[in-house]
Amino acid sequence: MSLTLDLTRTTATPAAPVNLSGLTREGLRQALIDAGVCDASKAKMRASQIWGWIHHYGVTDFALMSNVAKDMQVKLAQHFTLARPEVIERQVSKDGTRKWLIRTAPGIEIETVYIPDVGRAGALCVSSQVGCTLNCSFCHTGTQKLVRNLTAAEIVAQVQVARDDLGEWPSPKEDRRLSNIVFMGMGEPLYNLDHVSDAIDIISDGEGIAISRRRITVSTSGVVPKIAELGERTGTMLAISLHATNDPLRDVLVPLNKKYPLVELMDAIRAYPGLGNAKRVTFEYVMLKGVNDSPDEARALVKLIQGLPAKVNLIPFNPWPGTDYECSDWKTIEAFAAILNRAGYASPIRTPRGRDILAACGQLKSESEKVRASALRKAEQATVEAA
Predict the structure, then answer these.
(1) Cα–Cα 20 to 30 A to 47, which of 77, 91, 168, 207?
(2) Could you give the C-alpha distances from 381 to 270, 371, 372, 374, 387, in angstroms and in order?
(3) Is 361 designated active site?
(4) How confident is the model over 88-126, as pLDDT tens digits?
(5) Which of the following is catalytic: 38, 136, 327, 361?
(6) CA gap 82, 17 in Å, rounded
């Protein structure tokens, strides 16, 4: 007797509802039409109403949208979600820095950091990828393998989580604590430019979160072919993770340099759309003892960036477990800064923030990975011993 496999009752796993927080205005309008929530003639108006509730008021429940009809609230809840991701850990440094470990999906965990007294009031350092491919030798984040790009919703969620914690809904016009966004967290933003660009459109919208593009900075290690596109699509400030003034050293510190050497990188920076005195490029330069911190390196840096409207952020190296690098002495950093200052370049020395919770520059890699791995090993061992 032969058997026939009956597939007629097999049902596909339903797709997860779309989170409206990650849709651009046009994306939101089209989603309402496609889901049959409203017809095309009213979709723009409805999208504008919903947009304000999501991004200005920060609501996570469609039932709270008081100017949206009850039947439409029900339809929205059937097709979409506004849910925040799970905050697994929240740490606060003695200096006021806050770090959140956020789980956006099974196995997808990211870190984002709020730093008070940076920019106009405070800056949020957001991640664009889970892990990183760049393997910069001084960076703790670079030791974590790339899992995937973050979606626009997952990038925007980092801002939402921070504003939830800071109590900044509805969007304040004055006296806001979160005034700046920096894409300097986990990952290389230019390898995820589509989602980063959409997230910036959402974050900068004047009827929502309303953080000006001039207060959003995207940092890249030097993905040369995407630098001009970044400027054209986002209009944000540009930061370059530089750290060396010659190719042999930068090849070691920032291996991406082997693909896009300094001459190509500097040409791309000079062509960045809108670059000028009101829109300077920021060069990030981590100070590594005996590696890149000599007066000769400072003079070479001046020569490298000559003619560019620029400033240089000098970053004292933040140690992390297992690194072979050490932070330059303070006098050495000050002498380095003095050479840049005399050449006419602002060169603030970044005060290390959040070191006690591993939230400082280059340290973003979840310690909870180690904790959970240790707990898992102990549980497995207990199971073996009990058998």
Answers:
(1) 168
(2) 58, 15, 14, 11, 10
(3) yes
(4) 989 998 888 999 999 988 888 888 999 998 877 899 999
(5) 361
(6) 9
Each residue's pLDDT tens digit, 294-346? 999 999 999 999 999 999 999 998 877 778 889 999 999 999 999 999 999 99
Q: Where are the beta strands (DSSP E) in the chain?
A: 18-19, 80-81, 86-92, 98-105, 108-116, 122-125, 129-130, 148-149, 180-183, 216-220, 237-241, 281-287, 310-316
Assess whether 334 carries a catalytic annotation: no
Active-site residue (options: 111, 154, 188, 297): 111
**C-alpha distances in Å from residue 87, one per residue of 111, 112, 289, 322:** 10, 11, 36, 27
Show the 3-state SS of 281-314: EEEEEEEECCCCCCHHHHHHHHHHCCCCCEEEEE
- pTM given for the model: 0.87
- Taking CA atoms, 259 is separated from 65, 114, 223, 250, in Å, by 50, 33, 9, 11
